[in-house]
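Below: protein 1.
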Amino acid sequence: MSDSEKKGWSGERRRAERRSGGDRRSRKDPRTGGPAERRVGERRSGKDRRDEAGWQTVAIDPASKRARDEGALIAAAIDARSRARATYSHFQVGAALETFDGDVITGCNVENATYGLTMCAERVALYKALSDGNELFTRIAVVADTAEPTPPCGSCRQLLWEFCGDIEIVLANLSGVRGRFRLSALLPLPFDSRLLDD
């Protein structure tokens, strides 16, 4: 067999062994034992997040653990800030995101030598919270060692709006609170899924 024939045979074999995708589509449904069908009705279309009611402020019951002391939220952000990986800028930021149930998920900024891969503290906290299954949030505290308030950057504002709605943003330094804002005040004209309606 010549080299060209071997290459042709090898290519045919690879094509024959390649997954067509059909095997992925023909999995068995564990509930029925039959072939799995696409459950379109069970999928989220995203329209629930386009509903105006989804962007309303969440009411907090002061008698519940959801009304966590603001000082404790800021303390959690300060603690997270101490773990920041700010090797290049030396600008350490901590964030503490509060869920509707009163749980607090923290994050710190993590820098990278390529700069573009750097992750802000707010996004670290948000991604951790989402990956743990949290869906409703009431506020986020952001702490940096600056005299003036250090607000979330534009990318963080966009992501917070997408997944948290119009939450409260508490800006603090190591001495105390320097500002409180609704996210809608920091991002007055957001791009969101409501603009994607047909």
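Below: protein 2.
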Amino acid sequence: MSESFVLDYFLLVFVASCGLYQIAAAWNRLRGLMLFESRGLTFVLGLVLWVGAFAWFFLSEPRNMPDTGAGLTGNEQFGYFFAGGGAGLAATLLVTSLRNWNLGKGIDALPTGLDALRDTGYTRALFRGLMPILRPLPGDRRTAFAALRRRFKDATTDRTDPGYNPAQIPSPATRPGEGDG
């Protein structure tokens, strides 16, 4: 019974989280995360998924068992809850991105953050948000990400130290005290 109970718990969290993501998307008018164009229909679908998952889980079999028997320990519950919620989020993002593929196609400027999901799907918002980082800088072949990394590395190096000499910095393999048995 433990194996089926684990799968049942994972499915409970997966379906319930998918329902909650739809409720949140409908409530906040995030059209890019909604499975249907109608807010009301999306909200009802989310509510049915959420309530249905709990009804199925608790009414199909007796589930009140101690972890010393066939029940789940707290660590197992955390792990399966995390996996089920994450899988529900991934499935929601994938399905709604495919469903809303053309949403926001003609919009030039999108708001930043989660507000972008009001006008476009997740993948389009993600790629538009990443383009400034992945695009090379004008007059430079480095990407903005490489430039930021170099600036961060330069900013964290203490050049005011009188003993600073970049040529004298030992590699990690030759630092004293490391690797000695």
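The radius of gyration is 25 Å.
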